[in-house]
Amino acid sequence: MKLSLAFKALGSLCLLLADGFPVSENLPPKIIGANHVKIKAHLGENLFLHCEAFANCEDTLIYWLVNNTFPEDLPSSGKIVESDESTLDEGAILLRSLLLKNVTSEDLKSSFTCVVINAAGMTQKKIMLTVRSDCNAGKNRKH
Ligand SMILES: *[C@@H]1O[C@H](CO)[C@@H](O)[C@H](O)[C@H]1NC(C)=O
Ligand SMILES: *[C@@H]1O[C@H](CO)[C@@H](O)[C@H](O)[C@H]1NC(C)=O
């Protein structure tokens, strides 16, 4: 399993990277923002889902799962693409995005999970999509 390999790859040393916070205890990563999010999407559009987390640790992994599967292992491979990981603040903040090309009704039934793991623990953010209604946009009602 890739997931257990990921766990094995983590070192046991867990250092706080942010300056000015001399914390000796190991802390699990912390996702920035809500842990459950509903996002309104238009069918047919390209949609980016973003995930940001405080690493709290030197060896912290951030990745996305779709239906609890790695995006590259999905049957519809290539339609949902994970960006490379990036960092802010000298590694204190991790970022990773998921690009949904051409949002379909299947995507509305899928679960999108951002997972962040370090030696001290794991945290997750779950995103569900709903269809954006055009009722208030006024675009189709112009005369
Ligand atoms: C987007 O998906 C729909 C439904 O699956 C398909 O009919 C359409 O051709 C796709 N558009 C693009 C640009 O791939
Ligand atoms: C995720 O699971 C749902 C429900 O089982 C399915 O309809 C959907 O197509 C799956 N999504 C992907 C991207 O395979």
Automatic annotation (TrEMBL):
Entry keyword set: Disulfide bond, Early protein, Glycoprotein, Host-virus interaction, Immunoglobulin domain, Inhibition of host innate immune response by virus, Inhibition of host interferon signaling pathway by virus, Interferon antiviral system evasion, Signal, Viral immunoevasion
Signal sequence extent: 1-20
Domain Ig-like: from-to ranges: 29-130
Domain of life: Eukaryota
Pfam hit, one: YLDV-IL18BP-like
Coiled-coil intervals: none
Alphabetical list of InterPro entries matching this protein: Ig-like_dom, Ig-like_dom_sf, Ig-like_fold, Ig_sub, IL-1_rcpt_fam, IL18BP-like_dom
Function field: Counteracts the antiviral effects of host IFN-alpha/beta and key IFN-inducible proteins involved in viral RNA degradation suxh as host OAS1. Acts as a soluble IFN-alpha receptor and thus inhibits the interaction between host IFN-alpha and its receptor.
Protein name: Soluble interferon alpha/beta receptor OPG204
Native species: Perca flavescens (American yellow perch)
